[in-house]
Amino acid sequence: MKKVILSILSISVLIFTSCSLDNDDENSxxxxxxxxxxxxxxxxxxxxxxxxxxxxxxxxxxxxVKDGATLTIEAGARINALAGGTDxxxxxxxxxxxxxxxxxxxxxxxxxxxxLPKAGDWGGIIMNGKAPLSRQAxxxxxxxxxxxxxxxxxxxxxxDNSGILNYVKxxxxxxxxxxxxxxxxxxxxxxxxxxxxxxxxxxxxxxxAIEFFGGSVNATNILVVNAKDDMFDFxxxxxxxxxxxxxxxxxxxxxxxxDPRGIEADGNLDGNTPTDIDQSVFTVNGLxxxxxxxxxxxxxxxxxxxxxxxxxxxxxxxxxxxATYSDFVDLKDGKTDANDNTSVIAVGNSANGxxxxxxxxxxxxxxxxxxxxxxxGGADNSVFAWTGYSF
Length: 391
What we know:
The chain is mainly beta. Helix content is 0%, strand content 43%. It is globular, with a radius of gyration of 20 Å. The relative contact order is 0.15.
């Protein structure tokens, strides 16, 4: 399939053993009570638990890893999530940890238990940490979890450690609660830089693949395939560095949301508090965004807005012959903070009818975008050989 290629040189925005589980009114959905077994991962985990790789384990409801508890998952383990939509997910609360440290030979798999799995079968993995968020000057760094408002995240420990996700594959997630709240594949809420997020594959999700709500965690080698909404989402004061991000929509992928993007970046949460302090200032080193969905329009390949500050280097944006981006790069919209200034240097290939100068808000609010021809760059896909995905 013919492709059109853009290489972004830089974007900167001016700136199982058994274990007892307690129960309380924070539980929701699925099987949430009693003693956990390989067939009953649900409830409030208050003691350390190890899931071995000798048998498959079943996530049957909402599993909340409480403050002081650690959920350890051995390399090669498989967790089958009940296809229960929003009622089935793993949430690591502040002070809790998940250690899922796989290897290239023995990755850890989180997937749906359905014989006909599909996007939205279960709610994915949520990690809550104690790292800073954007906020009003007089407010505390504290926010409610989108999918469960009774549980909070955020704080003042930028180096907080919520555990390890390494060589982990997450499939068929992203269950929707309503138009305002959804589960992503992997949600990182105020997660600190002491946490390891590396070698992650997020496949066939119903909403965003990975979203950073504030925090300072760094992420390396993240593969996203067929996310219905945004591939990589940054908001609420995220300040980390992401290295080697690869997102693709396949040729037969036709799912549509209102405004899917490769990167969506906001300085504060949904642009609702443009006068926040500590808004998003983050870096992406090595980025590939490919839209091969022949009938699928993506709103933007890259959108940086609402007070966000981004530096993106070595990016490659490609387009299938029947697919489009409404905007190649969009740095502002009507909801952007009036004081947001953006500058971009981009390199692209205008073959096959895509105009790489079709950027939005190239001068508005002090923003500038310049484009020229390029044919290479982006993320290194060889590091994803462990996933078995064919590029």
